[in-house]
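Posting for a labmate who doesn't have an account.
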Amino acid sequence: MTTPVRKPTTPVDRPARRMPGWAKALTALVLVLVVLFAGLRLSVVPGLKDLFGSDTQDRSGPALLKSVQDISRYDAASGNFQVVVDLEKDARFLPDAIRGTRTLYVGAGTVDAFVDLGKVGEDDVTVDEGRTSATLRLPHAALGEPALDPDRSYAVSKQRGLLDRLGDLFSDNPNGEQAVQKLAARHIGDAAKDSELQARAESNTTAMLRGLLTSLGFDEVRVTYGT
C-alpha cells in the first residue's frame, strides 16, 4: 500500500481592509490639531521662534499719482474718538466651540469738521461803501469721514470656533478685521454727530475770518451760517 503524500498548503491571501471614511476624516483632523499645537509650542519655546522665524521684504512698486482735486473747504476742528467694539457672530444649531466668532476691538480715530468756502457766492458777501463793515453768510459746518488710526487701534481678544480656525488656514485673509473696523468707524461717526464738533468748527471759522478781515482794515465783521 502506498501512503498518499499531502501537499503543503499555502495560506490564502486575504484582501487588505480599507480604512473607513470617518477614520480618514478623524486622522486628518488629528494631524491638523498636531500642527496647530506644534506651532504654539514653537512660539513658546525660547530660541525655536528665531530659528524658524520668517523674513519680511517690501517689494511694493512706487506709488502713482492718479488725480489731483482742489479743496476749498476750511478744516476748522478735529475730534479724537475711541470706541470698544464687541462683535459676535453665531451659527445656528452649532455651539460656539464648533462654529462662531467673537472679537473685542478697540478702535481709535479722528473726524474732521469743515466749512466749505467753495459754496459761498457773491450774494453771500456784503461790504459797505466805506469798506469798514462786512457780512458773510456761510454754509453750516459738515463732518468728514471717520479715519481709523492703525497705530492706536487693536484687537483685544479673538475667539473662534474650530471650523473657523480651520477655515483660516485656507483663507487668503485669515483673521480679517474688516467687519469690526467698519463697525468702529460707524460708531465713531455717530459719536461725532452727537458731539459739539460742528459748533466748534463754526466758531473757529468765525474767529479766523474776523482776524483775516480785521487785518485787511475792516472794523466790523459779521459771520452767519445757514443755507
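Reply:
Got it, the C-alpha cells are right above this. Residues 113 and 143 are 5 Å apart (CA to CA).
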